[in-house]
Amino acid sequence: xxxxxxxxxxxxxxxxxxxxxxxxxxxxxxxxxxxxxxxxxxxxxxxxxxxxxxxxxxxxxxxxxxxxxxxxxxxxxxxxxxxxxxxxxxxxxxxxxxxxxxxxxxxxxxxxxxxxxxxxxxxxxxxxxxxxxxxxxxxxxxxxxxxxxxxxxxxxxxxxxxxxxxxxxxxxxxxxxxxxxxxxxxxxxxxxxxxxxxxxxxxxxxxxxxxxxxxxxxxxxxxxxxxxxxxxxxxxxxxxxxxxxxxxxxxxxxxxxxxxxxxxxxxxxxxxxxxxxxxxxxxxxxxxxxxxxxxxxxxxxxxxxxxxxxxxxxxxxxxxxxxxxxxxxxxxxxxxxxxxxxxxxxxxxxxxxxxxxxxxxxxxxxxxxxxxxxxxxxxxxxxxxxxxxxxxxxxxxxxxxxxxxxxxxxxxxxxxxxxxxxxxxxxxxxxxxxxxxxxxxxxxxxxxxxxxxxxxxxx
Length: 459
Description:
Elements: H1 3-16, H2 34-42, H3 50-58, H4 61-67, H5 69-76, E1 85-88, E2 97-101, E3 107-111, E4 118-121, H6 122-139, H7 144-165, H8 170-175, E5 178-179, H9 180-191, H10 197-208, H11 211-218, E6 219-222, E7 225-228, E8 235-237, H12 238-241, H13 244-262, H14 267-273, E9 277-284, E10 295-301, E11 308-316, H15 322-325, H16 333-344, E12 353-358, E13 364-371, H17 386-407, H18 410-417, H19 422-451
Antiparallel strand pairs: 1-4, 2-3, 3-5, 6-7, 8-9, 9-10, 10-11, 11-13, 12-13
């Protein structure tokens, strides 16, 4: 189709799903129990880590929301969609955006979590992102007008950015990215240096968060050998987790993961990885929603003990979208995550790859591998003022639109969104209604913990 025909397709989709319907949210009469969804997820995870997941989710409605991607996926499945598909993130809340170092070593702002990525409706990502701003703003005690401003900004900037991407050549869309140095220059011109001191401090911290920092924070010398420091239950070196033959078996399995993963890298990356040697590994608890999935940090060194490379091998399970959108085209969920990340991110980790592995229980699981720290940093929504949150909403809205434009049809989606505020207002209404639902679901989690149905612990 030519550009005019693609735009006509987008406008025609309004008859299937008028933009105003995206503001509707009403729980279905047979809506699944959110606690039961969490219990179902726990069955495939490390049992002793599940109480940590519940404890982290219990701390606040926003923390619950971070861990409840599966709950929201079930809810979104009953909402209207335009039929215009993209590579969806699957968990596009505001804490899953942040700063990291691109291969050219410049800091960029982008999405940084793709565990649930799958082709799907653009609306689902936008609604999850918008609702996260409403929930975070409530937690900060913002007035209604300030909450509305942040949420509306997400939707407006997403819409405007998508319409701008529709005018660009394909290569211009593909190479578009938010370089942090450029963003900071623009913000200084708008708001002055004083208001940006906290952001600049955070960027300096992100720049310092690399393999050398990991070496300093995560390792020590034991009998002249470099070893990962244990901080149970969050970081448990293999020596502390298992003993004897079982330890050797797990180590051999994980080394097999690294060897298998190597084949998914580009040739130059494989050659470079071969210059490192294995030193140690440990199980690590990561995130909120991911707690309980199997995640390992692998310590490698190059020239000497002062030349580290720290990788993270993380289990990838089925996307929370799959029950509603169908199974992934990829047999390996690690590959599903990696392919989604490469489609959506402007610049991905040079060491990003995937592999299957058989555990000591004889079960095959899928993993993806990336660097543990590489200039990574994220904003803490609890410290944001209304102005800062609105600014952050602009960054996230633009970034999500860019990610969707790379895999979807920006001409059709932009035509569907239109030049008016119909979509913006609808998304803001949805975010308000779903934040109410999330508070009820968080209360249900607290009740389940209090009654003994679920176990929770602080960590």
